[in-house]
Here is the input.
Amino acid sequence: MTGPPGAAAPGPSAAPPATGPAHRAVPPRRALLAGAAGNFVEWYEFGVYGCFATVIAERFFTPAAAGPDPAAPLLAAYASFAVAFFFRPAGALLFGRLADRAGRRPALVLVIALMTLATTLIGLLPDRATAGAAAPWLLVLLRAVQGLCAGGEFGGAVALMTEHAPPGRRGRYGAWQSFTVALGLLAGAGAAALTASLLSPAALSGWGWRIPFLLALPLGLTALGLRTALPGPRTRTSAPDPASSPDPAPAPGIGTVRAVVLGVGRIMGWSAAGYTFLVVLPSYLQSTLGASFREALIATTLANLGFAASILPAGRLSDRVGRRPVMLAGALAVALCALPFLRLLRDPDAAATAKAAALLAAGATVGLLAGPGPAMLAEMFPSSVRCTGLGLAYALANAVFSGCAGLIVTALTAATGDPDVPAYYAGGLCALSALALAGLRGDDHRGPLR
Here is the structure.
């Protein structure tokens, strides 16, 4: 007992001591909503781009410009997709340092504003028939801006959510980052599917593909409003709070670098499997299995539904049993089941219900990694470098193993003629991730953040 005899114990709504670690400048639910909204907008755009990769290849990367290889336009479209990922580490450093030094809000407001602007401009961008050779370069430039913003988005949003999570709920709160990724991808696939169903193929290719990109404008403005409503850096009245403290943060040292490398190892399977099954799948089904555009979108929607359904339960479970067993289960499931999954999709005699169940299960296994993943990364870094460290680990893993997924899978499949390349890619990297995840401490989820 620290209070006088007979004093009532403070309840959940009681004001914490002025210097206690429980002080929060931002209510947990407000922090959760503001952090999740930006993630939704970011991944909505990436989902739309993945679904329209073949259309973008036609409009911006023509066969004549890309070379005699018929796969070259699609490879060029995926190369522009990968460009955004390779700018993510720079964005993680730039905006992560801003968030660690000036507070979470300024960085999060800036990244969502720039992301919304870049996505809207893609919807307005003249294609190659109008702008000539400048069109693909303008597209790449906008993708680079998006990459910078996305690199800063993850670290700031995850830090905001996990730092303000109630005790014992970091996994659940962090899982909302991944859940809004799933919602964004589903919304992107849904917008693409709805547009494709309402328009003729000629109209879709000519101008209809722009509509889902332009929808990012009202979505982004909504997220921007939520973030600007967060308390500013100097609204705090007690101990420094990691979500709003303007105090200078020390530069990342060798310990941070080591943690970043380990973090990359732990989530590279998540990155590879997520993009292989959730983003690259539409183009793979069309180019390799001869599926129609609508069939590919339906398959992707099913995989994303499975992904979304498992994320929050996985985050909650990791609060009870730890991050390690849940994430290990997901990594091993992908490593063992990726090849049978793709072979089932190719089997002409397999029932449609079996294929649908396989798609749902494939997405669910990725959710086992994505649910506890954000909280696991947040627990690896102290507050002073948390945004920079976890953002950089996530950005590097995505740059190498997600951004290149479409490029690698498409190129290797075309070169070898082996339709199992996606399974080797996702399963192999998940097997390596399992080795890194095995080293997680079993009690990291119980203690406070550093």
